[in-house]
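Note to self: the last two entries modelled the partners one at a time, which told us nothing about the interface. This time every component goes in together.
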Amino acid sequence: MIGVFDSGVGGLTVLEALAAELPCEHFVYLGDTARLPYGTKSAETVVRYALQATGALMQYPLKCLVIACNTASAVSLPAIRERMANVPVIGVIEPGAEAACAASRSGRIAVIATEGTVRGAAYEEAIRRRRADVRLTALPAPLFVALAEEGVCEGPIAEAVAHHYLDPLFAAPRRPDTLVLGCTHFPMLIQAIRAAVGAQVTIVDSAQTTARHVRRTLREAGLAAAGGQGSLRLLATDAPQRFARIGSRFLERPIEAHEVELVDL
Amino acid sequence: MIGVFDSGVGGLTVLEALAAELPCEHFVYLGDTARLPYGTKSAETVVRYALQATGALMQYPLKCLVIACNTASAVSLPAIRERMANVPVIGVIEPGAEAACAASRSGRIAVIATEGTVRGAAYEEAIRRRRADVRLTALPAPLFVALAEEGVCEGPIAEAVAHHYLDPLFAAPRRPDTLVLGCTHFPMLIQAIRAAVGAQVTIVDSAQTTARHVRRTLREAGLAAAGGQGSLRLLATDAPQRFARIGSRFLERPIEAHEVELVDL
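The predicted structure of the combined assembly is written out below.
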């Protein structure tokens, strides 16, 4: 089984990409909806919550754990890896950083993320480790999270917010050529973001890059499912109905409230 | 001492109104920033969190407890009152409902609030108890919370969001004549909201009405401070720096991070 952990429903964009790359696998997804958002919380608190969630997922026979939340990936990977010594633990930051470094020609890369991810500077570190020449700009864009959760993903509000955050970066003469969507909510707003940055900028969606990274890791370790029909189990720490309603948009298929199991952390 | 409890910084609008009405009182404010927002969480979870916060505030010699959070007021007042049997516990819903019923001529009242407050139907119940003739429309407006926290309180985005929520209500022929701001964040957006609804609508800000209600309660009970200089103690369950930065806007005076004491619930 592959565990996928997120602070809420945003990680369903990662789950969707994983299920597309690995259709024969069994997934268990835990959204910590009782305590979201992680993006505005301190590193210590996020680490504590992430370890509790990891503990809940360890009830399942995991062969791999994906930390689909950028904020949790940014601050809690070492602690989670220590806890799950025998299972590969994959975050979304490293695959995103790798894809951005491969895509950028000019070395000017921008990352939009939550406050917590930006403050933790995890993308910065992961990108600099790969390419010392990169000039990185990391920008918190929390309104995108609220818009995605509200389903206001296109139209004048989404476009105005995209311009609000991105114009100062992309209207500059030496503008970035690559933009990393450093939050699992942001792929929902891809059209408004694309309209604001223009067609020339490469947009790196860490859901896609992480899914490919997980597939490669499982294959290299000889852990990939050989065939059969995959499955999905959904867990949430609060409000299964809201999870189902908003999650349906993120997963791009209907979720019924009774499919979502309530767990107490 | 007067305890003021909120899920985060939004309740500082209530605290500011309280300090203006009652300048000689000593206040202790607790923002549960580790677990905000409450507005999207289930009633059970909000009650549990509110009781933990109440426990922390009971360390102080309280003569009154104000539940500044609409969502917590909507679902957890009975549980908190049971816990604090000897101290008056005042929420923001009843004073807001009272003011709205007094203000409305046509009996058509609208409430904008968080999802949790709308789902709990507490305004509906409190208003109908006072005026059976009222036709109430309650609408969740969660993007306003995100905008207020981000400090995007005026300009094209705030106006577009105000129109997004309010036009369907106020463009109708039999439009409400009274609008209740049923979330402590919303007074921050008063200009954009006013622009969307027009000058004829009475806007009820529950911070003001609650502060007056608290003053009346203390006077009637003979508990009001007779004189002297008031004081303020700020507690948060996470991220004091963020509390200080964003809270400064809500309290309309600078807050230094070292003024905010971290408490663990």
